[in-house]
């Protein structure tokens, strides 16, 4: 049972007690105090749990949560369903850091994260995969559909005016599977697609498993 569900049950129980003991002011006050403590614990637990999933710089989900969600979705993948993994890498990011500094590089990463969030579907989830790489998990998505999203992201980055006045492009690798595979296998396939895309720079490559 999740802690939030447990707290909800406790609160319902306490409300019942309040109704029963409403005539006794001391008991009523004590129960009210206990309810406040329970609510505080629930909120604090939720905030801590949520923060553990978030990358502070980009406000996207982090790599640890990515690993968990990807494995979970692959395990639950139904027959004849598709799952796509998109890995997006900033072209020549080291040059941006070396030329303009890490503060500028961090600003570029944060703005790119906003672009990703604005250009994926409600069913998709975006992650800070590591360094200048981002990942997007796309349920029920075939190669053609994944390429549409990837191209939309690529073009949005090209057109975006970065506040740091830096020109940014991205290369995107996509792997799509329609059967249960391990998280490692689909990541390797997406990395292979990204490697091919980066050879030409600022391109999109999708590989079917």
Separation of the first and last Cα atoms: 37 Å
Order of helices and strands: HHHEHHEEHEHE
Spans where pLDDT lies below 50 across 5 or more residues: none
> What is the overall pLDDT average?
86
Q: How is the biggest beta sheet arranged?
A: 5 strands, mixed
Specify Rg, calculated over alpha carbons. Answer: 23 Å
Helix content: 55-70%
| Total count of strands | 5
- Strand composition percent: 15-25%
Structural class computed from helices and strand pairing: alpha+beta
Gross morphology:
globular
How many distinct helices? 7
- State the strand order across the main sheet: 2-3-1-4-5
Task: Give the structure's gist in a few sentences.
This protein is an alpha+beta fold. It has helices at residues 3-21, 25-51, 63-75, 93-100, 102-119, 143-159, 183-200, and strands at residues 83-90, 125-130, 133-139, 170-177, 204-208. Helices cover 57% and strands 16% of the residues.
Features:
209 residues; alpha+beta; five-stranded mixed sheet; globular
Reconstruct the topology from this structure.
Blueprint: H1 3-21, H2 25-51, H3 63-75, E1 83-90, H4 93-100, H5 102-119, E2 125-130, E3 133-139, H6 143-159, E4 170-177, H7 183-200, E5 204-208
Helix pairs in contact: 1-2, 4-5, 5-6
Descriptive notes:
The chain is α+β, with helices and mostly antiparallel strands. Helices cover 57% and strands 16% of the residues. It has helices spanning 3-21, 25-51, 63-75, 93-100, 102-119, 143-159, 183-200, and strands at 83-90, 125-130, 133-139, 170-177, 204-208. Strands 2-3-1-4-5 form a five-stranded mixed beta sheet, sandwiched between helices. β2 (125-130) and β3 form a beta hairpin. The longest helix is centred in the first third of the chain and has 27 residues, at 25-51.
């Amino acid at each position: 049972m999740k802690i939030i569900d447990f707290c909800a049950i406790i609160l319902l129980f306490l409300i019942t007690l309040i109704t029963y003991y409403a005539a006794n002011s001391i008991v009523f006050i004590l129960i009210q105090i206990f309810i406040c403590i329970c609510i505080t614990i629930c909120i604090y637990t939720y905030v801590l749990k949520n923060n553990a999933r978030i990358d502070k710089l980009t406000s996207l989900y982090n790599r640890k949560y990515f690993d968990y969600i990807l494995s979970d979705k692959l395990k639950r993948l139904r027959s004849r369903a598709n799952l796509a993994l998109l890995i997006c890498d900033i072209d020549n990011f080291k040059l941006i850091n070396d030329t303009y500094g890490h503060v500028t590089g961090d600003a570029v990463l944060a703005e790119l994260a906003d672009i990703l969030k604005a250009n994926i579907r409600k069913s998709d989830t975006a992650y800070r995969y590591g360094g200048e790489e981002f990942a997007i998990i796309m349920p029920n998505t075939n190669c053609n559909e994944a390429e549409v999203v990837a191209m939309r992201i690529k073009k949005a980055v090209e057109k975006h005016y970065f506040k740091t006045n830096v020109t940014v492009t991205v290369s995107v690798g996509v792997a799509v599977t329609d059967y249960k595979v391990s998280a490692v296998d689909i990541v390797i396939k997406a990395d292979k697609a990204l490697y091919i895309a980066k050879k030409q720079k600022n391109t999109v490559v999708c590989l079917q498993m």
